[in-house]
Specification:
Helix content: 25-40%
Distance between the termini: 58 Å
Structural class: alpha+beta
Low-confidence stretches: 1-19
């Protein structure tokens, strides 16, 4: 059996894919992760798609491209939800 590789265009995350009600604590933690990243790296201007965050430990990582592949205990907080209270 031969394996054939196909190139695919990068998949972009769409906020509509992540329209779920999230725990406000997760959103606060995601906002804190983003704020810390921005304070440490103010010269970087690339906007993240969101944060992949563990629902139990509240540890997370910024996601910059593609749809995130999440572990069972993780969820994705889109940047639109992080941003909504960031500037108010």
């Amino acid at each position: 059996m031969a394996y054939v590789s196909q190139k695919q265009a990068p998949v972009q995350a769409d906020d509509a894919d992540f329209d779920v009600l999230l725990d406000p604590g997760l959103i606060r933690s995601a906002r804190s992760i983003y704020t810390t990243y921005y304070e440490v790296h103010p010269e970087l201007i690339q906007r993240p798609l969101g944060v992949a965050i563990d629902r139990f430990t509240y540890r997370g990582k910024l996601i910059f491209s593609g749809k995130p592949i999440l572990l069972p205990q993780e969820c994705f907080v889109p940047f639109s939800q992080i941003e909504s209270d960031l500037y108010s």
